[in-house]
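> example.struct
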């Protein structure tokens, strides 16, 4: 749950009121509304109430990107290149979006 909270709040200035789909293979996150939570998680959920997001469950076997990253990152010589692509691509897309909205 912390990963979802952290990233949604970090990207909030860029997301604005746009709808965001958060895909996870973590079953506990999907059932967070049905089980007792501690005060920290309650606070995170309260802060996220204003955001327009939906949680979607992806079975672990179908979550190929996360699976590959968790198993291979740092173990292959192209790990650094993959990380660079992952870091650069979103920034370029955000800049492109921002420029288009300014025009």
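> example.seq
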């Amino acid at each position: 749950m912390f990963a979802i909270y952290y990233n949604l709040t970090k990207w909030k200035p860029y997301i604005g009121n746009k709808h965001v789909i958060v895909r996870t293979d973590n079953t506990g996150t999907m059932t967070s509304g049905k089980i007792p939570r501690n005060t920290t998680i309650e606070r995170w959920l309260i802060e996220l109430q204003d955001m327009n997001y939906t949680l979607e469950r992806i079975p672990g076997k179908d979550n190929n990107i996360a699976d590959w990253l968790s198993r291979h990152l740092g173990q292959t010589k192209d790990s650094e290149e993959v990380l660079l692509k992952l870091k650069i691509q979103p920034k370029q897309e955000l800049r492109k979006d921002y420029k288009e909205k300014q025009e």
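> remarks
The chain has a mean pLDDT of 75.
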